[in-house]
Amino acid sequence: MRKKIFELSLFIFVLSLIFISGNTIADSIDISVADGDRVGVEVWIGGLEIPWSLKFLPDGRALVSERPGRIRLIKNGILQKNPYAEIDVAHVGEGGLLGLAVHTEFPIKPYIYAMHTYKKGNSLLNRVIRLKDMGDRGKFDKVIIDNIPGGRFHNGGRIEFGPDGMLYITTGEIFDSNLAQDLKSLGGKILRVTPEGEIPQDNPFKDSPIYSYGHRNPQGLAWYPETGELFSSEHGPSGEFLRFGNDEINLIKKGGNYGWPEVIGIKKKTPYVDPLILWEKTTPPSGMTFYSANKLSHLKNDLFVATLRSECIVRIKLLKSSNGFKVLRMERWFENKYGRIRDVVQGTDGLIYFLTNNRDGRGKPRDGDDRIYRIIPLTK
User: Rounded CA gap, 216 and 187, in Å?
Assistant: First the structure.
């Protein structure tokens, strides 16, 4: 009897360790679901040039950034001819106009935020600026944060407001891996600032906007709806140290060191934080969102991740308990159907929208690309 109790206790202990670690090799469990789960897809907007970020405003308008430097306005489901704003960017390689964010108190505080690459002398840099909404156009207001390392590649670029009202910014290490571990550099980090660009007093490093570090090229941010915990997507190596793949979904901890370039993959090595999900094969993930509306109720609290080379949206079902997160199921939706996918967001109408990036120099453009597609309930 005691032996059985001991064996049962040991089994429960081992199971709890697996649950706490929560680290999942995605390649072995994600399955292809060609048409998604009880959904349909329709074209919403076409004729875009390398769209990078899509944001919906409370009044029904939407804004989409195009990497060459334009913010486009969508009203009543129609793409407006004149740009909402044109920003002087350095459109080189992966650089240019990247992420957008909307002030959490919009329209009382009518501000739109944008991250972009620019040239200063012979150097490339990134910064986040703020525009004031004027209806059909946005007017430059101020620079929020500047002197973020920039390059032809690995600029990060996603910006999002968190449930705490702070602005989070992903930055890449511009193919200089040492920057990721350097707390004096803003490259290879997730940054956190106030809506005015000030450093919050509760940031983990004194007088620094750095929230986490050891990142290579993070491109997605999303908060779990029930707890407000922060997740990020990140590109793994593309030949550095003769390594490829190892793309990640990370659960971001305040002050956490996510290891690049000291560790690659799941190593369980102190003091580094391992990814929650790891794709050993090249995926790489970009924008992502947790679904929290009711129009597609069977998708509630699921994480949706846009992928580029994999040309699909990954749906991830998670189980949350006091011990952490466990991956229950992963599905690859629409594989090789729409091309490279840069961002996926939830609209104010409770539907899911995603952007293609087939004109970014790495895709195969089709007539009408690039597009915004809308995921809708499947009709019988």
Answer: 9
Dihedrals φ, ψ of 10, to 5°? -65, -40
What residue has token string 């370039």?
Answer: 261
For 219, residues 6+ apart whose C-beta sits below 8 A from its C-beta are 156, 157, 158, 170, 233, 234, 235, 284, 285, 286, 287
Tokens of 55: 């944001």
Pair 159, 101: CB distance under 8 Å: yes
What angle is formed at CA 261 by the lines to CA 260 and CA 263, rounded to 5 degrees? Answer: 75
CA distance 378 to 36: 10
- The tokens for 46 are 């076409």
Query: Whose structure tokens read 């670690």?
Result: 21
pTM above threshold 0.85: yes
What tens digit of pLDDT does each residue of 194-215 get?
999 999 999 999 999 999 999 9
Written as six digits, the tokens of 115 are 């991250």
What are φ and ψ of residue 30, in 5° steps? -80, 135
Model confidence at 322, pLDDT cuts 50, 70, 90, reads confident
CA 163 to each of CA 229, 362, 364: distance values in angstroms, whole numbers, following the listed order: 9, 35, 37
Total domain count, the chain: 1
State residue 177 phi and psi, 5-degree precision.
-60, -25
Beta bridge partners, 212, equal 190
- Burial class from Cβ neighbours inside 10 Å (0-12, 13-18, 19+) for residue 366 reads middle
**Residue 222 domain flag:** yes
Eight-class DSSP state of 243: -
User: For position 316, which CATH number holds?
Assistant: 2.120.10.30
Within a domain: 175: yes
Q: Which residues, including other chains, have CB under 8 Å from residue 9's CB and lie 6 or more apart?
A: none
Residue 129: phi and psi, rounded to 5, are: -115, 170
Q: Which of 250, 166, 238 is nearest to 203 (CA)?
A: 166
- Domain of 50 in residue numbering reads as 24-377
Asked if the structure places residue 8 within a domain, the reply is no
C-alpha dihedral sign at 309, 333, 313, 231? negative
